[in-house]
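=== RUN LOG ===
request id: a7f3
mode: sequence -> structure
chains: 1
length: 89
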Amino acid sequence: MARRKTSIYVDENLWREFKRRATARGTEVSTLLEEIIRDELMEGISDALLLLAGSEDYQLDFEPVEPSGPVSELVRELRDEREGHILRQ
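=== RESULT ===
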């Protein structure tokens, strides 16, 4: 993922508190800001899906699938496979 450096104007006290919270969480300010931006974008997608569904009371009706076998091993295998694919690019 390419990253872009940008400049924004933010209230000085607000920015100081934001940096303090990022530090308290043990994360970089940029990472926390990216998370907030992603959340905001996902909220927009969520709103669009609600409009398409026609109601906030829309519910999915499905039967959960019971895992058969060692699920955690399968998840680990898929993660390792994806990591290997990403590293080869």
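=== NOTES ===
The mean pLDDT is 81.
The helical segments are 12-25, 29-53, 71-88.
=== END ===
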